[in-house]
Each structure stands twice: as structure tokens, then as C-alpha cells.
Specification:
- This protein has a six-stranded parallel β-sheet, with helices on both faces.
- The relative contact order is 0.19.
- With 272 residues, the protein is of the alpha/beta class.
- The chain binds nicotinamide-adenine-dinucleotide and zinc ion.
- The site of nicotinamide-adenine-dinucleotide has 32 residues, from helix 12.
Length: 272
């Protein structure tokens, strides 16, 4: 950490003077909660083809025809999402919100961990795995993460034949019309959510903090560019080289869960 002391101090100084900080997060911020990113080596996209199983239709087809590959992957993912807890990075962002520094968090993540860490103004551009939407009447409701995953795992382990009926048996039923609900997440080819607001808050920021995102998933990768164009300072925290080098004022090659608490400590004077 000592190696990046100067960058951490510069980031703390800039953030302590800012009042309209927008944060843009990707899968990397939840990596320290043991939810793997998809794109890093060994991630999901090394195991399955995203163009095949990343769409609703493709996932259904893969479930029916390649269950021996898909089901164990699903079980592992369910396990990771069930055991995950908000980490030091998620919690430090809420500390910065309570200090009046961070205003809005825009996340590509679907894991609910920012909300569970306390973040109040959250834009989930790829939706949330634990919010259900009815395919028939559009009714929406939230489910509790851990009991919901346990229910899905139990139902999944009881399936003998992986057909459409089996897939439907996993669905939550709508309270309003008794039709099936699906997790309100954006799959490949579906519209990204809340874009006008995400672009507006990006352009209104005095600083944008970019955490754990590779910069290759669009349109989310445009937020820092939009903020920079509007005059904001851009601070990037990512342990590996990423697509935002060109627009970052400060680049800190550290894990978010190490860098963010260190920055909070410097702002509050609780660490050297
Ligand atoms: P991505 O393209 O945003 O890449 C992840 C980035 O995080 C990489 O640049 C990596 O270097 C960085 N990173 C890894 N560990 C980090 C750490 N400890 N601190 C800071 N940065 C770290 O993400 P992806 O994995 O390709 O995912 C693509 C999309 O899939 C996401 O936009 C999201 O919608 C979805 N996804 C969501 C979750 C989740 O909800 N937790 C997990 C995986 C994927
Ligand atoms: Zn309904």
C-alpha cells in the first residue's frame, strides 16, 4: 500500500474537497466478497460462451441441451452469491456518502451488495438479481437474497429432466396475476436501465470514482468519459491496467477493498 501512498493522499485530498462525487462500479468491487468477475482469467466467460448463455433464449436452450455443463456452473454461482457479504470497499463508499462526499453510486453489478452496505442513491444499470418482475403484468417485488437462493438451489437439485417445465418450476409466482416472474437483470441484447439519469449524474459530478470495472462493457464504460468531458476529476482504482487510463487524473492499481478504506482513513485523519 505504501507504494501508492502519494496517489491515495491525492485522491483523499480531491475527494475531501468534493461534494458531488459519483461512483461507477463494476464486478471488481464484489471480487473481494468472493463473487468472481466474469471477464478476468478463470471467470464465467472462460467457462461458457456469453453470446450463447448470456441471453434469455440462449440460457433456456443451454439449460435444456447442456445441463451437465450449465447446472454445476449455476450451482457454483448460487453458492458465491449466497455467501457474499458487503466488503470493506462497499462499506467505505457508504462512509463517504455519510460524510457528504459521495452522492450517487452507478453500478453494473446485480448482487445487491451496495444496497446491503447502506448506499441510498443507487443506479443499477444492469438490474438486480433479487428484484423480480412479472412477465405478464409487470408487477415488481424484491426477494431476500439468502432464502431466495436457498429455494432456487433446493428446487434445482430436485429436477430430473431439464425441460421448460423444470425451468418454470424455479420461477417466483406473481402475487397479482399468478404468472411467472423473472429476475430483473439485463441480459445480452436487452436494454440497459436508467441511462438518462446515469448520464445526467455523471455529467453533474465534480469527481467520478471508477472502481472495479474494465471499461469494455458499454454503455457503462461511457460514464467516466462523460464526467471528464463535463470537467470532473476522474479517479480510477483497479489492480490491473484498464480502459480508463486515458481519462483518469489519478490511477491507483490496488484492490478497492484496500484502497477505499485507506482513502477514508486519510480523510478522517484516522490513518497515516
Ligand atoms: P468488468 O468488465 O467490469 O471487469 C472487472 C474489473 O474489475 C477488471 O478490470 C478487474 O481488473 C477489476 N478488479 C478485479 N478485482 C478487483 C478488486 N478487488 N478491486 C478493484 N477492481 C478489481 O466486469 P465483468 O466481470 O466482465 O462483468 C461484466 C458484467 O457482468 C458486469 O458489468 C455485471 O453486469 C455482470 N457481473 C456482475 C457481477 C456482480 O453482480 N457481482 C459479477 C460478475 C459480472
Ligand atoms: Zn403478474
Amino acid at each position: 500500500m505504501g507504494q501508492w501512498k502519494q496517489e491515495l493522499e491525492k485522491a483523499a485530498t480531491i475527494l475531501s474537497r468534493a461534494t458531488r462525487v459519483t461512483v461507477s462500479t463494476g464486478a471488481g468491487i464484489s471480487a473481494e466478497s468472493s463473487i468472481p468477475t466474469f471477464r478476468d482469467p478463470g471467470g464465467l466467460w472462460d467457462q461458457i460462451n456469453p453470446m450463447e448463455a448470456g441471453t434469455a433464449k440462449g440460457l433456456l436452450r443451454a439449460f435444456q441441451t447442456k445441463s451437465r455443463i450449465i447446472v454445476p456452473i449455476l450451482m457454483t454461482m448460487l453458492d458465491r452469491f449466497e455467501k457474499a457479504e458487503p466488503n470493506a470497499g462497499h462499506k467505505a463508499l457508504f462512509d463517504l456518502e455519510k460524510m457528504g462526499i459521495v452522492r450517487t453510486v452507478i453500478t453494473q453489478n446485480v448482487d445487491n451488495l451496495h444496497k446491503e452496505a447502506g448506499t441510498t442513491d443507487l443506479i443499477e444499470v444492469h438490474g438486480n438479481l433479487f428484484k423480480m418482475v412479472c412477465l405478464s403484468c409487470g408487477w415488481e417485488r424484491e426477494v431476500d437474497r439468502k432464502p431466495y437462493i436457498e429455494m432456487i438451489r433446493n428446487r434445482l437439485s430436485m429436477i430430473d429432466v431439464y425441460d421448460l417445465d423444470a425451468l418454470l418450476s424455479l420461477a417466483v409466482i406473481c402475487d397479482q396475476c399468478r404468472s411467472v416472474m423473472r429476475p430483473d437483470v439485463v441480459m445480452f441484447g436487452e436494454a440497459v436501465k436508467s441511462m438518462p439519469r446515469a448520464f445526467r449524474v455523471s455529467a453533474e459530478s465534480d469527481v467520478m470514482l471508477v472502481l472495479g470495472t474494465s471499461g469494455v462493457v458499454f454503455p457503462a464504460a461511457s460514464f467516466p468519459v462523460e464526467a471528464k468531458k463535463a470537467g470532473a476529476g476522474v479517479i480510477v482504482i483497479n489492480p490491473t491496467e484498464n480502459g480508463f487510463r486515458h481519462c483518469s487524473d489519478i490511477y491507483i492499481p490496488m484492490k478497492a477493498g484496500d484502497a477505499l478504506p485507506a482513502i477514508v482513513g486519510k480523510i478522517t485523519g484516522c490513518s497515516g
